[in-house]
Structure formats: C-alpha cells, structure tokens
Specification:
With 253 residues, this protein is an alpha/beta fold. 49% of the residues lie in helices and 14% in strands. The chain is built from 10 helices and 9 strands. The strands form 2 sheets. It has a 6-stranded mixed sheet with strand order 1-2-3-4-6-9, sandwiched between helices. A 3-stranded mixed sheet has the order 5-7-8. Helix 1 runs parallel beside helix 2, helix 3 packs across helix 4 and helix 4 packs antiparallel against helix 5. The longest helix has 17 residues. This is Enoyl-CoA hydratase. One of its GO terms (biological process) is fatty acid beta-oxidation. GO terms for molecular function: catalytic activity. It comes from Alsobacter metallidurans.
C-alpha cells in the first residue's frame, strides 16, 4: 500500500502484486491509510487506484479460504467489512480509478468509494457466485446504486460487464477513453478539491443520509448542514470571490 499527497488530493495505491488480491495484509495496510486520512482535515479528495498492478483488484485471494469455515466472520468477514465501511465513511469525497479489472472483492472496494472512473475496455463484476461465494457488502451497495434488478443479474450470473455497460447501468460515473483512468481521476479530483471542502463533506453526509435515514430525519440533517454553511468563513469567501471576479480560496471552515 502506498499513500501519497499532492496538495489537497491524497492517493492510495494498492500495490499488492499484479492482481492486487484482497488479503489480510492488504486490508491491514488499507485500514492504516484510511485511519490517517480520516483525521486529516486538509485532504479534500481521495483517489484509490491499482498502482502498478494489471488489475485494480481481482478479488479475494482464494488460498485464504481453505482454513475458513465457522471462523470466517472472525478471520475475514468482519474485518473486511470494517475496512470497507471506513472507506465509505471517509469525510472527503473518494474516487476509484479503475485502469484494470475490478472483480469480486475488487469491485466491492470500488463500490465503497463515492465515485468511479473506468478505463475503456476493462471488466467489472461481482463474480463470487462462480465459486459458490457471495458478494456481501457488494450486493447491498450495488443494489442501492443501480437498483435490484440489475444488481441481481450481476450477482446471480457472476458475469462481467465492460466499462460502457457499467456506465449505462450507473456502476461507474465516467469512462476514460483517452488516457488512463488515474489521469482522469486526478483531473476530476482537482476540480473537487477546488470547490468548498465543507460543502462537499456535508453534501456527502446528506446524500448518504438520504439512503440511510427516513425522509424527515434526512431533511432535519439538511437544515443543520445548511446552517453550518451559512456560519462558515468559506461561504463569505465564496461571495467575496464572486463579486471580485476571482477564484475563491477556501479553508474548509
């Protein structure tokens, strides 16, 4: 795992061999990187990518399954779920840059990010059922993203989709047709990092609340968030910059 910073944008490169298989060491390393980023208020966008691997992530290391049965929750499921939840709950917006296949647990990693950009021609799929396995968190997150019918199709068949079909279904937000997905993600992250960081963090919370909470609760959260924006120095700066016809310099407060 490699964690780097460029200004307000952080990058996590999986760097776990050519296939970036999901193993305990990879999860421990990712968990440590996420813990570092969660406490860094200067980070305004995070990119997760496959580093030098052929795949973004080709899923779990099947060799680890041999000793798992009744102890699977203790040895794998709970820890993996915790790491994915930590990724999903990062305060800053997150982008998965997919320059290689994202399969099984690899797609589950990408689905835990806020946004996804895929290089043209790559394969994506929740392929666990081919082995008699199950994409647990992937089933939930994919259904919320694309609806139950398409999620069930991908889950029940284990078939992969290409980037264009993934875009049409809403699995990914954008396709990188010229250049790499990482380059496209960096350009996209630069735009996000230039926007109001407090606005983006609160906006992320509200979108998540729209899925997780009853309508009235989410709308009450919206009211509180709006007041926080009007209390902020960022809004004052944005207003001054608008009238001065210059680019605002936001501080996230």
């Amino acid at each position: 795992m490699e964690l780097t910073r460029s200004g307000a944008v952080a990058e996590i490169a999986l760097q776990a061999g050519p296939l970036n298989l999901v193993t305990k060491p990879l999860l421990r390393s990712l968990n440590a990187a996420l813990a570092t980023l969660a406490g860094d208020a200067q980070v305004r966008c995070v990119i997760l990518h496959g580093g030098t691997g052929r795949a973004f992530c080709a899923g779990s290391d099947i060799k680890e399954f041999a000793h798992l049965r009744e102890n699977a929750s203790e040895e794998k499921i709970l820890f993996e779920d915790m790491v994915l939840r930590r990724l999903a709950r990062l305060p800053a917006p997150t982008i998965a840059a997919l320059d290689g296949p994202a399969l099984g647990g690899g797609l589950e990693l990408a689905l835990a990010c806020d946004l996804r950009v895929a290089r043209v021609g790559i394969a994506l799929g929740l392929t666990e059922c081919r082995l008699g396995g199950l994409a647990g968190s992937g089933a939930v997150r994919l259904a919320r993203l694309v609806g139950p019918a398409r999620a069930k199709e991908m889950l029940f068949t284990g078939e992969v989709v290409d980037a264009d079909q993934a875009l049409a279904w809403g699995v990914v937000n954008r396709i990188a047709r010229d250049g790499s997905a990482l380059d496209a993600a960096r350009a996209w992250a630069g735009v996000i990092a230039d926007r109001g960081p407090l606005s983006n963090r609160l906006g992320k919370q509200l979108v998540d609340a729209a899925l997780d909470e009853p309508l009235e609760g989410a709308l009450s959260r919206s009211t509180v968030s709006q007041q926080a924006i009007f209390d902020s120095d960022d809004l004052r700066e944005g207003m001054r910059a608008f009238f001065d016809k210059r680019t605002p310099v936001f501080r996230g407060s």
